[in-house]
């Protein structure tokens, strides 16, 4: 997908009773498995634009499902940047455990975590987009348990969200 495809698939939630407009790229691409189309893990972007000030907060959101080794308790992320890897603390959004099939497959652990990169960080990632080339912004979730989970998104997705946010702000007269 191109940045323009990502911009077109970015979901905007906004109405007159909300103080901020919310964007996300969740529906742009999800890797689905099996006949039921189960999404085991997903990473996507969110942005929140204050409709009075234009101040924007960005988030990289991780929805993870694991079955091996117990709770990962993801609390840090290492992510690739042009100048070398960087790290950030993760904010826990939610978690759940389902042991109804534990006799056969073990418990299923669901965790939702995020980190808030700066606009500058996202701009640097977006500039690595090259048309017709396969590239990824690589990230590694690190858990208190010692477990890790490697995930990625494309620079086109990052650029697409930024274009959607910038377009909204320009249309709304926000800086």
Describe what you observe in this structure.
By secondary structure, the chain is an alpha+beta fold. It has a single domain, classed as Immunoglobulin-like (Sandwich), CATH 2.60.40.1880. The protein is built from four helices and ten strands. The strands form two sheets. It has a six-stranded antiparallel sheet, with helices on one face. α1 crosses α4 and α3 packs across α4. The model has no long low-confidence stretch (mean pLDDT 90).
List keywords for this structure.
175 residues; alpha+beta; Immunoglobulin-like; six-stranded antiparallel β-sheet; four-stranded antiparallel β-sheet
> What is the helix content?
10-25%
CATH class: Mainly Beta
In quaternary terms, these chains amount to single chain
- Approximately what portion of the residues adopt beta-strand conformation? 35-45%
Main pleated sheet? 6 strands, antiparallel
**Runs with pLDDT <50, length 5+?**
none
CATH architecture designation: Sandwich
SS-based class: alpha+beta
Q: Roughly what is the average pLDDT, rounded to an integer?
A: 90
C-alpha termini separation: 28 Å
General form: globular
Number of separate domains:
1
Strand ordering within the main sheet: 1-2-3-4-8-7
Radius of gyration: 17 Å
Would you list the SSEs in sequence order as H and E? Answer: HEEEEEEEHEHEEH
The CATH superfamily title: Invasion associated locus B (IalB) protein
Furnish the topology, listing elements before pairings.
Blueprint: H1 3-9, E1 11-13, E2 20-24, E3 41-50, E4 56-66, E5 74-79, E6 86-89, E7 91-98, H2 102-105, E8 108-115, H3 119-126, E9 137-143, E10 148-153, H4 155-172
Antiparallel strand pairs: 1-2, 2-3, 3-4, 4-8, 5-6, 5-9, 7-8, 9-10
Helix pairs in contact: 1-4, 3-4
């Amino acid at each position: 997908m191109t940045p323009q495809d990502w911009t077109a698939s970015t979901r905007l939630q906004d109405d007159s009773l909300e103080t901020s407009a919310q964007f996300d790229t969740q529906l742009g691409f999800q890797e689905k498995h099996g006949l039921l189309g189960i999404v085991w893990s997903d990473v996507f972007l969110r942005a929140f634009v204050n409709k009075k000030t234009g101040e924007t907060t960005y988030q990289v959101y991780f929805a993870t499902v694991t079955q091996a080794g117990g709770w990962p308790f993801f609390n840090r992320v290492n992510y690739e940047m042009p100048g070398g890897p960087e790290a950030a603390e993760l904010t826990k959004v939610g978690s759940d455990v389902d042991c109804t099939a534990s006799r056969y497959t073990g418990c299923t652990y669901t965790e939702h975590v995020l980190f808030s990169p700066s606009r500058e960080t996202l701009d640097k990632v977006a500039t690595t987009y090259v048309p017709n080339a396969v590239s990824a912004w690589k990230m590694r979730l690190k858990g208190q348990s010692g477990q890790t989970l490697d995930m990625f998104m494309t620079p086109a997705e990052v650029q697409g969200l930024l274009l959607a946010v910038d377009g909204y702000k320009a249309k709304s007269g926000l800086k």
